[in-house]
Amino acid sequence: MLTLAHCQPFSHLHPPLSVKRTRTRTRASMDPTVSKPAVTGFPYLPPSHRDLMVDLLSSIEARLGPTLLPSRVPPDVLYFENQQGTSQGALDIRSGAQDSSVDFILQSWLHCKVPTGDLNITTVFAFLNASTDAPHLLMEFIQGSPTSLILFMDLLPRKDLVLHPEYLDEFYNTTNLDKSSHCS
């Protein structure tokens, strides 16, 4: 069973004196009649953030869906929450089919009530298999307040960039991603 410590991502920092740190067990109902948000539901996000994530996952599904296997993640991981209901999350992993260049795609969301408000983190990882040298993709949206949204995107290299400068050029320097085709 997963254990959350109030879902504080900076647990190594000293908490404010008024916050009592406790460990709680997560719970996940195995009752199929209990309604739980799907990993693609994003129930705690503001509409614009939710729409962005739904569009992103819809694009991934449209492009890669036929090459992805059905999820085999157990129900208590697809959705989980702590006993106080202050932290909820969902996680799904889909493996690529044998003929796919995708090894697996992980998508998740995490919602935590913290002393300063709510913290929402949505994540998409796309890991490719050995049939390609292309970098893995990481996209993460972190919302710490209604006026704060951090977008973190990274192409995770599959080779040491110092030892393989040709890899650096091929996948990072000469992609022309910084040039827009519709700007004059």
TrEMBL record:
It holds the Pfam family RCC_reductase. GO terms for molecular function: red chlorophyll catabolite reductase activity. Transmembrane segments: none annotated. GO terms for biological process: chlorophyll catabolic process. One of its GO terms (cellular component) is chloroplast. This is Red chlorophyll catabolite reductase. It comes from Asparagus officinalis (Garden asparagus). The lineage of its organism: Eukaryota, Viridiplantae, Streptophyta, Embryophyta, Tracheophyta.
